[in-house]
Inverse folding.
């Protein structure tokens, strides 16, 4: 598997994030606005407070930006969170998404003490479903007509992983 690191997202990542979030596939399958501005992006970054939401740049061992990985709001009482990821176009097809998702799951179980993580994947995104499957997640079913962005509603596959299911490193 490809070697990736998760490093906290900061304003230093704004140029890389702007480029990644301009990609039509990232826009199609994430909750980012249709046009990502630097102002919006700085506000989005400010939302990763290190308590209820976390965000990382996915980088290679040399520190090159490959994509980003984020949590939805962490349910501290229920010990669970949604994990999300996007890979920059130039880094696709190399296992970056799977490695990043596994790194987030390890963080969730070993550092954050969570007991369940989910990945919500558009039914129109089989590549992302394959990522969840390769990372050991179990497909639980389809959430119908989930609010995505603006007036758009989509069907999402729900994939989950429990600590005992985390693949060995």
């Amino acid at each position: 598997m490809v070697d990736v690191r998760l490093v906290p997202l900061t304003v230093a990542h704004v140029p890389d994030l702007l480029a990644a979030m301009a990609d039509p596939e990232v826009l199609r399958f994430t909750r980012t606005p249709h046009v990502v501005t630097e102002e919006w992006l700085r506000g989005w970054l400010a939302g990763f407070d290190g308590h209820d939401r976390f965000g990382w740049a996915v980088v290679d061992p040399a520190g090159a930006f490959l994509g980003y990985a984020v949590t939805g709001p962490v349910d501290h009482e229920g010990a669970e969170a949604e994990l999300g990821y996007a890979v920059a176009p130039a880094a696709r097809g190399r296992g970056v998404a799977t490695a990043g998702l596994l790194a987030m799951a390890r963080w969730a179980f070993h550092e954050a003490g969570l007991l369940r993580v989910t990945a919500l994947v558009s039914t129109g995104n089989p590549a992302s479903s394959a990522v969840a499957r390769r990372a050991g997640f179990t497909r639980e079913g389809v959430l119908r007509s989930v609010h995505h962005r603006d007036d758009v509603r989509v069907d999402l596959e729900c994939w989950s992983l429990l600590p005992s299911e985390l693949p060995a490193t």
The chain has five helices and seven strands.
